[in-house]
Design goal:
CATH topology: Nucleotidyltransferase, domain 5
Number of strands: 11
Strand content: 15-25%
Mean pLDDT: 85
Helix content: 25-40%
Oligomer: single chain
Structural class: alpha/beta
Order of helices and strands: EHHHEHEEEHEHEHEHEEHE
Strand order of the largest sheet: 7-6-3-4-5-8
Number of domains: 1
Largest sheet: 6 strands, mixed
């Protein structure tokens, strides 16, 4: 037996504005959380229209400005298959602004890529980068040799993408007009595991190295997101979803 009903059907005291705000931030997640909609195994993460609405047309890089604090995120690679990418961003009011994307496509020398990235970081006055914790210790040592501190990211990329989505949907992001970035963001897929947990990643055979670095940098400069209260009685029953 399964009992399927939306949150406000089960509990009318939940304000409609909470549901509306959740739908605006992440429609797919809110439909499951508040609307009792069953999730598909795979669905698109973000629409092309939403991404293109926050792209700064014809702007492929923004030069460093004085009195601006920049943050940087690196998606490391060993150089044999995936790209190694660097993204730099800053905050203007509520808007997370992407300033620079650097990509070294495979095959390449990791040490050479770190040297190139270091030169870019110095242009923006950045002395610390955050990056993928699954890359091991070599990025930390490689950047340290060039005077840059490397810290593992506290969040996996699924969380970075999830945090970025409401900012894209609300127009609180300014992306660069870089085709590989927009294509990778649009190509991301949201997969729902049997237990209901989401993962957000590229499609099989595709890549998201540029998108991962951009999401990381933008989330580093963003203000802490508003967290909605836990939904009450979205779906209940003897068998789970």
């Amino acid at each position: 037996m399964v009992w399927q009903a939306a949150t406000r059907t089960m509990n009318p005291t939940v304000p409609q504005r909470i549901v509306d705000e959740a739908m605006e931030r992440d429609p797919a997640s809110a439909a499951a959380e508040y609307g009792a909609q069953f999730r598909s195994d795979i669905e698109s993460f973000v629409s092309r229209e939403a991404v293109m609405a926050v792209v700064s047309t014809s702007v492929v890089v923004r030069g460093a400005l004085e009195n601006v604090t920049y943050r940087a995120f690196v998606d490391p690679s060993g150089g044999s298959s995936d790209s190694m990418t660097l993204a730099i961003a800053h905050l203007e009011g509520k808007v997370c602004v992407l300033d620079c994307i650097v990509e070294r496509r495979a095959p390449f020398s990791p040490e050479s890529a770190v040297e190139e990235f270091t030169a870019t970081l110095r242009l923006y006055g950045v002395t610390k980068v955050v990056g993928d914790r699954y890359a091991g210790d070599w990025p930390k040592e490689a950047f340290r040799r060039h005077g840059i501190r490397y810290e593992p990211s506290e969040k996996p990329k699924t969380d970075l993408y999830r945090d970025l989505l409401p900012r894209i949907n609300s127009g609180e992001v300014a992306l660069l007009d870089v085709e590989r970035l927009t294509n990778q963001l649009i190509g991301l897929e949201r997969r729902t595991a049997r237990g209901g947990r989401d993962s957000i990643d590229h499609a099989p055979g595709a890549h998201d190295d540029v998108a991962n670095a951009a999401a990381g940098a933008l989330c580093l400069v963003a203000k802490p997101p508003w967290k909605p209260p836990q939904a009450i009685f979205g779906v209940s029953g003897i068998t789970g979803r």
